[in-house]
Amino acid sequence: MEPTTTTFPPPLVRLPGSLEECRIPTLPSAAYYIADFISEEEEKLILEKVERAPKARWRQLTHRRLQTWPSDLVRNTLVDSSPLPEWLEQPVIPRLLSIPLSKTDADNIFACSPHGRPNHVLINEYPPNTGIMPHKDGGAYHPVVCTVSLGSSLCLNLHKSKEDGALDPEPVWRILQEPRSLLITTAELYTDYLHGIEPVAADVDLSGETIANWSLLRSPSTYRDGHHTRQTRTSLTYRDVLKVSKLGSKLGSVFKRP
């Protein structure tokens, strides 16, 4: 049987000429925001694929659920080195790799990562009143995180630890992630700051003074009253796992169905 492929319509997207054009100016180091990274039709098709994934793919937590592709990590190592399914590959990864860092630097954001591209995707589903505690992603990944948001907007909070090591509960910055947007965080924001999502029904106090990427939003006027009621938001987080088990590749070929 021939493998099935996912066909996307011509995209209605607005990609920048370089990442430098969409750098979030109020954040340290390198963080980028592209409001229209995928089209509405692409968003719809990806959400359908997420929902139709086998039940065994879903891990149910207390208030939310998630999928991990191609597999969970074992001791910070990707054991299953199977390629990502096409619906997670297209159209996101080719677009990520097509955008140069700047007009003078033709490299893409993954040019210095071990595999030159993402090899792992975490899918998180956030219903209203659902969040995640501030945390760091740890040392399993190359320090580049690319997150595509689907379905609804919400605020990502960035936190800094106090001098005594305790978490400062007040976020240093807030980033509003719109549906179909791409957020890239790297370097210092990856290594030194924690990120989390507050478990609320609505994000409030939204303005150019409180939202770091306000000037890059698709439509800031949508939030002119400073309030956004959440709906279910699904995130696709693309990263390059540093260690990939060769044993996993060998086992995959041994148990591969003829």
From TrEMBL:
Residue ranges occupied by any Fe2OG dioxygenase domain in the UniProt entry: 117-242
Superkingdom in the source lineage: Eukaryota
Compartments reported by the entry: Nucleus
InterPro entries the record matches: AlkB-like (IPR027450), AlkB-like_sf (IPR037151), ALKBH6 (IPR032862), Oxoglu/Fe-dep_dioxygenase_dom (IPR005123)
GO CC terms of this entry: nucleus
Residue spans crossing the bilayer: none
Gene Ontology molecular function: dioxygenase activity; metal ion binding
Keyword Metal-binding: yes
Keyword Iron: yes
The entry's keywords: Dioxygenase, Iron, Metal-binding, Nucleus, Oxidoreductase
Family matches, as Pfam families: 2OG-FeII_Oxy_2
Family affiliation: Belongs to the alkB family.
Record's protein name: Fe2OG dioxygenase domain-containing protein
